[in-house]
Design a protein that fits this description.
8 strands; alpha/beta; 272 residues
Amino acid sequence: MFHDAHNHLQDEWLDPYRDKVIADLEKIGIGGAIVNGTTEVDWAAVETLAAQHPWAIPSYGLHPWYVRERTPDWRRNLLNQLDKRPCGVGEIGLDRWIPDYDFEDQKAAFRWQLAIAAERNLPVTIHCLKAWGALEEILRNEAVPDCGFLLHAYGGPREMIDSFVKLGAYFSFPGYFLHERKSAQREVFRIVPIDRLLVETDAPALPLPDEKVEFPLPSSPTNQPLNHPANIATIQRALAEIRGVTPESLAKSVTANFLRLFGRSGGPHGLV
């Protein structure tokens, strides 16, 4: 059984293939998948998928890429989503990679969403690019949920892992880091504490190297390669090899970590 700590199953690029994608996920034995909304426009689609598939766990947030597109009612709209059923908060975060970013606006949106998650003790999924110092400062000085938070596709320095762990972090490994040029990121994930390690696809984004793809999809309308969520199985086996452990041992740890952060039936957060 596999657990995908971060994907975007609602993404419109998956619309033509979603029935096949879901069938493939159930065939490999998907135990849980965090489906992350990123903007007010896609929160309803996330909600629908979660209602249809028990293993699809919703998470709602305003991604830093879309801060400028938010409506005046975005806070109320987000609270309405969080009130409907057990869920997470995310994908939220900070990003200095995108052009023409307003970093102060990003930080304000991130702080507000983080505060809501802390108040409700909901797991947070955090996106961060080129802003690790600013992220650490906020997490150190603001309330965070007791259950913890996920640094998805962690690409920060290895020297910051201990600091983030003390603040409550989990770290998820994407298949994109299997590309040859990502050796530094693979080395970082050799030393992530085993009790804070998760696996993700970020599907349909962050595709694996072509030679490692077990579940191919056609390219997007803009000719971007698409990542099939069922590639979670391939990613987890590859991470086991990187860590020098058996796939069975890693699966046991990843499952325990997933349930600890995102919850289980009768558990502390009740998301699964």
